[in-house]
Amino acid sequence: AAALGKHKAHEHRAIKAARGIVAISEEMASAIAEEHGYPRERIFVIPNGYEPWSDEHAPTPPSPPPLIVSHVGTVIARNRPDLLFNSIKQLAKAGKLSDVRWRFVGNLSQSYLRDEQPDKFVETTGMVSRDHARREMHAAHALLLLVGDYVGRWGHNAKLFEYLQTGRPILCLEESPTSNDRRLLERFAPERSFFARLDDPSAIAEQLKTIEKFACRSPERVLAVPPELESYSRRNLAMELNRVLNALIRERS
User: Fold this and answer.
1) Average pLDDT of the chain?
2) How far is CA 176 from CA 6, 77, 108, 150, in A?
3) At what angle do helices 180-188 and 159-166 cross, to 10 degrees?
4) Distance (Å, whole) CA 253 – CA 246
5) What global pTM score does this model have?
6) End-to-end Cα spacing for the chain
7) What's the pLDDT score for residue 59?
8) Pairing of strands 193-197, 122-126
9) DSSP symbols for 5-16
């Protein structure tokens, strides 16, 4: 408690001394203004972004069965993989995963899976190269996005943008509804985004059925990347940060 209080005091002093603040979401900007009494108009929102791919080639994914749902990238505790694995165990026990494989490409270890015991329907590749990870995204029937309450409330997952560039269906599993990730998916890819709560096995099973119909009838189908997504490119966001910094410098002159 003492350490947290010290951290909060440092945070408050830094915010009060700032000529301007950059936050990664509107929700975070509003929370900072309210908590610290800081002028909301001096808090600038520049979200997480992505580096656009230079080509649009997409290999054809494998044909079912099984339905391959891949999580590509780092698994972090605050995105609540524990809730997912608990749901997977319940679905496996009910016999609802016979044609589904959950594939984790990245940092998830075999020892973690042994500890969680999510059954035979989950596999992990371990760490791979960036090119390998991209091939895994294209080879999946659907891509898995885990959204814990903290991330969903204050920002969004950076991997969301790489997922969107693949043109593949996205299964977004949330700890709390109406996350920032969900709003972005509903904006940029509503026709290929599917949602359920992380702790709701029945809803997850229903979405898997819908994804199977969507993805497996025409596995070679890749949907176009919406041009509006470019507004989140690192180039555009760096230009926005440059604009904010220049405006603050001119004020000081």
Assistant:
1) 90
2) 30, 15, 23, 9
3) 20
4) 11
5) 0.90
6) 42
7) 61
8) unpaired
9) HHHHHHHHHHHH
Integer CA distances (angstroms), 146 to 104, 165, 231, in order: 12, 18, 23
- How many other C-beta atoms are found inside a 10 Å radius of the C-beta of residue 182? 19
Q: What is the pLDDT of residue 115?
A: 75
CA distance 220 to 101: 19
Q: Are 143 and 170 in contact (CB under 8 A)?
A: yes
Q: Give the DSSP per-residue string, 93-121.
A: HTT--TTEEEEEESS--HHHHHHH---TT
- Residues 202-237 have pLDDT tens digits of 999 999 999 998 876 665 666 777 888 999 999 999
**Please, what is the Cα angle at 91 between 89 and 97, to 5 degrees?**
110
H or E, element range at 45: strand 43-45
Strands 142-147 and 170-174: parallel
pLDDT of residue 218: 64
Average pLDDT estimate for 61-87: 90
Of 87, 83, 222, 81, give the one whose Cα is nearest residue 141: 222
Q: What is the pLDDT of residues 21-30, one digit of tens each?
A: 999 999 999 9
Which residue type does 151 have?
A: V
How far apart, in whole angstroms, are the C-alpha atoms of residue 251 and residue 229?
Answer: 32
Query: Which tokens is 227 given?
Result: 């041009």
The pair of three-digit structure tokens given for residue 57, joined into one six-digit string: 């080639």
Strand segments, DSSP code E, in 59-155 are 67-72, 100-105, 122-126, 142-147
What is the residue whose two structure tokens read 């180039």? 235
How many Cβ atoms sit within 10 Å of the Cβ of residue 250? 8
Please work out, in degrees rounded to the nearest 5, the angle formed at the alpha carbon of residue 104 by the alpha carbons of 102 and 106: 175
